[in-house]
């Protein structure tokens, strides 16, 4: 699923209320179609695919290259599917800024109101760990400010979260999918999208497996010994790269003692200790590098059209009548299908298959499951989403 890059420049301003209303209706209708044809698990797979997610944002009329596409589209999905989703066993929590920090409470509230066939505590843990990994274990100078957690009543989940690097005016988006994630601490993301690549201390990369083994061993030693070792190292002017400074001694003293008292058995448990953040992990990596000769890897983990116009008027202004017609047509087709008349849905599928063949992007009709194929990328954006 690591198939491209997405350049997400930071844009000012807000989504107009009239556009957001249409985004809610159209995005909800599209997701309903996916649920009707493929089920809720397919919704998670598509949201975890950076190409499909970006395309959905463009189709419903938001800026084609704005970081706001992520936050606004997730908000539209959450509001637009507030009633439809739970009936199908699909739930959404989190959002931007302060709303992101309410995600655990929202999950618990959903569990209180709807019958779930999974433990809500497991979902809360997954939400917290995904945020902690991308904010602390992947140190790429993008601060996570948006966390969107989507899950089913069976316990599968997906995460779309975004970080901001204000000095260079860029955003970076992180996609997670529980069904393809090997573990929380080794290559867990389904995709990480950004056009800017830099030196990154990625402690969940395969190359840094030795650090994940050694750091819990280091905090298992008495804090005084670890802090003395670190003081000796920094006094000789050895340090990690400038992008990864070591925090204040007082902060380190508290966090390392907290980790020592909890006796983490592995890196995942260490990551879950309250107070252990990017600074503590950088300090432990410095001790591992200098005292134990374990060299960290600083490889950036980044791997990787228009239907209704865009908010900024590019490539053309959004036409309200067109977007209303689109979701009205989808809702009408859904209504007929639920009454046993699938003619309109089948017609839409045939139209999509014909368009795909005409554009020579693919040579066969659309698959039964989107996840059975690689993302279909229009000719104008093949190779890179945006320049």
Walk me through the structure.
The two termini are 20 Å apart. Strand 5 and strand 6 (170-177) form a beta hairpin. The longest helix has 22 residues, at 17-38. The protein folds into two domains: 1-198 and 301-387, no CATH class; 206-292, no CATH class. It has helices spanning 17-38, 40-47, 50-59, 68-80, 84-88, 103-113, 120-137, 209-219, 223-235, 249-262, 267-271, 278-292, 320-338, 343-358; strands spanning 8-9, 90-96, 138-139, 143-152, 157-165, 170-177, 191-193, 201-202. Helix 9 crosses helix 12 (278-292). By secondary structure, the chain is α+β, with helices and mostly antiparallel strands. Mean pLDDT is 78; it is low at 1-8, 304-310 and 360-387. 47% of the residues lie in helices and 11% in strands. The protein has 14 helices and eight strands. The strands form two sheets. Strands 1, 2, 4, 5, 6 and 7 form a six-stranded antiparallel sheet that branches.
Mean pLDDT: 78
Helix content: 40-55%
H/E series: EHHHHHEHHEEEEEEHHHHHHH
- Shape descriptor: elongated
Please mark out the parts with pLDDT under 50 across 5 or more consecutive residues, or reply none.
1-8, 304-310, 360-387
Please summarize the sheet with the most strands: 6 strands, antiparallel
What class do helices, strands and sheet pairing give? alpha+beta
Our Rg estimate from Cα atoms comes to: 23 Å
Number of domains: 2
Per DSSP, the total helix count is: 14
User: Could you give the distance between the termini?
Assistant: 20 Å
Beta-strand content: 5-15%
